[in-house]
Amino acid sequence: MKLYGYVRVSTREQNECRQYIALTEFGVKLCDIYMDKQSGKDFNRKQYRELIYKKLKSKDVLVIKSIDRLGRNYEEILTEWKHITNEIEADIVVLDMPILDTRRNNDLTGTLISDIVLQILSYVAQNERENISQRQAEGIALAKARGVRFGRPRKPVPPVFFPLYRKWKNKEMCRKDIENELGISKMKFYRLVKMVETSSTSIFK
């Protein structure tokens, strides 16, 4: 039996020390702790795959601080849990949730309780992630409705384009001549036209 630890933080977080401390206090050696600085949306992580598919063997123990360090996708967490416990035949210990310790729950009742708790926690983790995404989408939609623009600021219409636009609208000048005079493409020309005609302060409305 060998103890392995897994630590995951997103690229925006810098709190991996708390996880390292918890794992080493449990007895995991620093050299046996694998860490990814990556989102938990899936399990395509370099260090995780190195640990699970090359290092972890039958009777070994995988230690994580909390279930969301394993991942955030409900279905994939369950799939990985079953792969580790059933196929590799290793144990898992979740430090923040002692009931999720497969070493202690080898009987039928213990296994059933662990499975139920795992599914509930995994569901909550994924549901929160989806709620955050939904709130972000709703916030963006409301901001757009208020006129807030996202992304790079759009360059203003060059002043020289306005008199040429007026001539084009009055059929005094063709599009091709304007493109040649300004050195712009057909796509750029119509983009400038759209900017002029959709501007709330356009003098040509």
Structural commentary:
- The protein is of the alpha/beta class and 205 residues long.
- The protein folds into two domains: 3-130, Rossmann fold (3-Layer(aba) Sandwich), CATH 3.40.50; 161-198.
- Helices cover 52% and strands 10% of the residues.
- The protein contains eight helices and four strands, in the order E-H-E-H-E-H-H-E-H-H-H-H.
- The protein has helices at 16-26, 46-55, 67-70, 74-87, 108-145, 161-169, 175-182, 186-198, and strands at 3-9, 33-37, 61-64, 91-94.
- Strand 1, helix 1 and strand 2 (33-37) form a beta-alpha-beta unit.
- The termini are far apart.
- Residues 200-205 have low confidence and may be disordered.
Radius of gyration from the alpha-carbon trace, in angstroms: 29 Å
How many helices? The count is: 8
Just name the CATH architecture of the largest domain. Answer: 3-Layer(aba) Sandwich
Task: Please indicate the count of domains.
Answer: 2
Largest sheet: 4 strands, parallel
Straight-line distance between termini: 78 Å
| % residues in beta strands | 5-15%
State the helicity in percent bands.
Answer: 40-55%
Q: Order of SSEs, N→C?
A: EHEHEHHEHHHH
Structural class: alpha/beta
Quick gist of this model?
The protein is α/β, with parallel strands linked by helices and 205 residues long. It contains eight helices and four strands.
Which structural traits does this protein have?
205 residues, alpha/beta, Rossmann fold, 8 helices, 52% helix, disordered C terminus
SSE topology sketch:
Layout: E1 3-9, H1 16-26, E2 33-37, H2 46-55, E3 61-64, H3 67-70, H4 74-87, E4 91-94, H5 108-145, H6 161-169, H7 175-182, H8 186-198
Parallel strand pairs: 1-2, 1-3, 3-4
